[in-house]
Amino acid sequence: MIYSYYLDFLFIYLDLLLVTLTNFILSCIIFMNKFMIPSWRDAKTLESKEIEHLMKIAHIAPPWITIPPKGYGGTESVIYYLVEELVTLGHDVTLFAPADAKTSAKLVSFYPLSLREEGVPWQGHLKAFYHLYKAVEYAKTHCFDIVHVHLSSSADMYVFPLVTSLATPIIATLHTPFPFDYVQSWTGDADKYYMEWLSRVPTVAISQSVCAQVPHPLQFIDVVHHGLPMDVFKPMVEHPENFLVWLGRITPEKGTHLAIEAAKAAHMPLVLAGTVDSHLTVQVTYFEEMIKPHIDQQQIKYIGPVNAQQKIDLLSRAWGMLNPIQWEEPFGIVMLEAMSVGCPVIAIARGAAPEIISHGTSGFLVQDVQEMIQYVPRLGELDRRKVRAHAEQNFSTRMMAEKYVKVYKRAALALREPSPPKVAVKARSVSALSTPLRNSVLGFKAQELSSSASGATTASEVEEEQL
Fold first, then answer.
1. Are 153 and 182 in contact (CB under 8 A)?
2. How far apart are CA 329 and CA 169, in angstroms?
3. What is the pLDDT of residue 10?
4. 3-state helix vs strand vs coil in the chain, percent to 5
5. How far apart are CA 308 and CA 350, in angstroms?
6. Is 83 left (phi over 0), alpha (psi -120 to 50) or beta?
7. Domains and CATH numbers, the chain
């Protein structure tokens, strides 16, 4: 009996102890949940939200030039920088491009070499169409949140009728001004027929300038300027050397001959770094007649095309860059490349130049060559650190990628809502082409460009994307 009594007492004691311990544990849990857990819980919620915001993105690149380009290819450079930054941000990116592309994204290819590497002329569209068709068919059978296509050359137009059966949201970036229906000096009217499909696609312009030049009703969703990886494009030297630089494709609309004229008048050496497309007669004739006679390898030096690292070194050492453009250039990434390494730019204020250059800080915007000559001695007044800072603050790949992600989400949302009304953007007067923009002085704002700029064109024989 005594043992039974003590055993009952022991069980009662253990029950009380268990209840007390349970209450203590519950109290601790309540206390932690109220005062300690929220920060952890919020962190997990934030992580969950970040995961929810990550997207599956497909980029259908033009198949002409290697990504990244070995030499020149503005569109291909931008696609490369954008895709790399989207991957860095954690997005699941698939790049449709020939197999010679280098990318951190998933690469899907349908033939081994880019068309220009293979020697295909710009007019040979069959393999370009095959690339676009296969990419769209792949996208139909795989899950993507957005498909991003790029309009840079004539053959890129084929993608728009192809994507009409695609259920995935799609956006396009307009890299080059109209028209796209042209072969060298001949221009057709097929662009207007393709508006049946293109006008339905949410479109991003790379500048206010290119947006204002469009002669067709496009569904513009935003303007996103190009960006550069500032950890790659950085100054290589502390002090520049005494020479000017001109860099790009050697064509009349790029104003290579005017850069020579300005450098000679300013008594400054000029280094020309660029390429001549041997397949285009006008470019070859221009180089032979307007450029080559001035090359003495002393005051006017021609070094041919340069790769990315050579470009960074050249621009870092140059006293300044001349950009006497003679057309409404849609962007002009070479100006951004120069500023990113601290090299100030003097540019004629046409196209997107007023959106890129901060007059008096990162360079000078001028009316004509005579004004350009007058500003050459003032290049030394500019702080090269502020020149680079302007590029860092306004044109980084992170800024570009984040803006595109917002565009992607808006486009995806718009697909579930009624389509917005389409607004036609009228082309600016062709008669004003011979006069560069007068709004080229201090205080010119990019936002004013669409309303105040006059003059619009695209040069013939500009099939390859401009620098």
1. no
2. 29
3. 57
4. 45, 15, 40
5. 26
6. alpha
7. 53-223 (3.40.50.11930), 244-394 (3.40.50.2000)
User: Token digits for 445?
Assistant: 């704002």
Whether the per-residue pLDDT at 447 is higher than 90: the answer is: no
Integer Cα distance of 39 and 47 in angstroms: 12
The yes-or-no verdict on residue 373 having pLDDT over 50 is: yes
Higher pLDDT, 279 or 179: 179
Q: Band the pLDDT of 24: cuts 50, 70, 90.
A: low
Residue 431: pLDDT over 80? no
Alpha carbons within 13 A on the beta-carbon side of 380 = 5
pLDDT tens, residue by residue, 94-142: 999 999 999 999 999 999 999 999 999 989 999 999 999 999 999 999 9
At 460, give phi and psi (nearest 5°).
Answer: -70, 155
What does the alpha-carbon distance between residue 256 and residue 291 come to, in Å, rounded to a whole number? 7
Contact assessment for residue 228 and residue 392, using Cβ atoms and an 8 Å cutoff:
no
Kindly report the number of other CB atoms within 10 A of residue 417's CB atom.
7
DSSP 414-439: HHTSPPPPP---PPPPGGGTTS--S-
The pTM (predicted TM-score) of the whole model is: 0.78
